[in-house]
Write a structure and sequence with these properties.
14 helices, seven-stranded mixed β-sheet, alpha+beta, FAD/NAD(P)-binding domain, single chain, 18% strand
Length: 493
């Protein structure tokens, strides 16, 4: 039983119908009266794996959701006003010997023999130039064009509708209705059934709570508890509005630091999504909306909508026979476009740890432990953008610069600042390239590099830098523009 639709509900329904064809009876309850948040428009490359699991044709999908492509995120004014850097989804240069490329770059940059770090990444050069293509099959192995990681921008409402059609074609039953009561079993407190406004009672064995911030089952009924992270992530509001397109769509999201938070700009085929994520302790809702409207590229397509949230996670994401998926499980602001990824990850983890009717506590505990580890590492990556700043021009940024941060993040920064080393912790989402790009982009420059770098002579180091930069530049030159690629392959009607 899935309570709630939207992106989370229909992703779960589609995946379970595909993985367990004919073996599960899946019913989804949603109410048109309640609606969905529906502002999520940017993703990370992992979504390709989800769509591949469903055997969805990419071009058909992009047309249906009026999507565009994403090579990364451009950050503006984060370290200091006037700064900008790019967090790309691809690699930086190529590993040389046993060391990652950035170790060699650190020495070359210190000696004045290297360009900025972004010059050695296909994504970071191609994105700002408006270039895009998918991986090419007719290029030599090892070419940057042979393995291009990318994500999507899309209309989340259209994606939910697309998955609804997919799921219903595979036997998922949708019920229109508003849940007004939840019945628990007396002997163990498990959810036994939900009661709709119409009076219909619907029983189930496993319940997925996709009811959004309300947490209708996981919190309002089972009282799983919530761990609040607002002392590290003080933004607790977002105001969102779409505007008309202005110029060709960029193959990246732009996140610009503002006086009390940050704004996003996400281009789709039919509109551009915009929003201001901010701290209500530092700016009011009306002023935030006015600031957002004042920086749009083109006329707004409606009135700004204010969303309220608290960064954090449920203390138990799986409690008894209820699994929270999406916003009901917790919330991290969309700075690194992880909201839909966390839905996908929660579904994949559920499939991997799918229970029998005994609901083993060992399975539930493992699910909760893995969920907590993953979201806490993503949390720390997002906090990094705030704490690694030199801005002190507003009270908001002075707070962020001075706040105490989680111990694991502090240790990660300390090790990187020492000698540029970063070690991925188990299966955490963001890998070494992401951490390196953001830390260097935010001004955390290591005092030294790995000693093995010194085995290269200065001339060899220079050749390495020049060769990589030349290859990247040539590859980007050969790429079509983002708009050309969309027009040729997946333009929406």
């Amino acid at each position: 039983m899935i309570v709630g639709g939207g992106t989370a509900g229909w992703m779960a329904a589609a995946a379970l119908a595909k993985v367990f064809p004919g073996t599960l009876s899946i019913r989804l309850i949603e109410s048109e009266q309640i609606g969905t948040i529906g502002v999520g428009e940017a993703t990370v490359p992992h979504l390709k794996l989800f769509n591949q699991l469903l055997q969805i044709d990419e071009a058909e999908f992009v047309r249906a959701v009026k999507g565009t492509f994403k090579l990364g995120i451009e950050f503006v004014d984060w370290a200091q006003v006037g700064d900008r850097y790019f967090h790309g989804f691809g690699t930086i240069g190529h590993d040389f010997g046993l060391l990652p490329f950035h170790q060699y770059w650190l020495k070359a940059h210190r000696l004045g023999k290297a360009a900025e770090l972004g010059a050695y990444s296909l994504h970071t050069v191609a994105g700002p130039r408006g270039k895009f293509m998918v991986s090419a099959e007719d290029v030599p192995k090892g070419s940057p064009l042979a393995d291009i990681a990318y994500a999507y921008h899309f209309d989340a409402g259209l994606y939910a509708k697309y998955l609804r059609r997919y799921a219903e074609q595979r036997g998922v039953r949708r019920t229109e209705g508003k849940v007004v009561d939840v019945r628990l079993r007396g002997e163990d407190g498990f959810v036994e059934s939900v009661v709709l406004e119409s009076g219909e009672r619907i029983d189930g064995d496993l319940f997925l709570d996709c009811s959004g911030f309300r947490g209708l089952l996981i919190e309002q009924t089972l009282h799983a508890g919530y761990e609040d992270w607002s002392h590290w992530l003080p933004c607790d509001r977002a105001v969102a509005v779409a505007c008309e397109n202005f110029g060709p769509p960029t193959p990246f999201v732009r996140c610009t630091a503002r006086e009390a938070g940050w704004t996003w700009r996400i281009p789709l085929q039919h509109r551009t999504g915009n929003g201001y994520v901010y701290s209500s302790a530092h700016i009011g809702d009306d002023e935030a909306a006015a600031r957002l409207l004042g920086q749009l590229d083109a006329p707004a397509m409606g009135e700004p909508r204010v969303l309220r949230f608290a960064a954090g996670q449920r203390r138990k994401v799986w409690d008894r026979n209820v699994v929270a998926i999406g916003l009901s499980a917790g919330f991290l602001e969309p700075l690194e476009s992880t909201s839909i990824y966390l839905i996908q990850s929660g579904i994949a983890r559920l499939v991997n740890l799918f229970p029998d009717t005994g609901f083993s506590p060992a399975v539930i505990d493992r699910y909760n432990a893995q969920t907590a580890f993953e979201i806490e590492r993503i949390r720390d990556f997002i906090i990094l953008h705030y704490c690694a700043t030199e801005r002190g021009d507003t009270p908001f940024w002075r707070y962020c610069r001075a706040m105490e941060i989680p111990a694991p993040l502090a240790e990660t920064i300390r090790l990187f600042r020492d000698s540029g080393r970063f070690y991925r912790n188990a299966e955490e989402m963001f890998a070494v390239t992401s951490w390196v790009e953001v830390m260097i982009g935010q001004g955390i420059l290591p005092r030294a590099w790995h000693p093995a770098v010194d085995q290269l002579s200065d001339a060899e180091l220079q050749r390495l830098m020049d060769d990589v930069q030349r290859v990247i530049a040539a590859c980007v030159e050969a790429m079509p523009t983002h708009q050309q690629f969309i027009a040729r392959c997946c333009a929406a009607a």
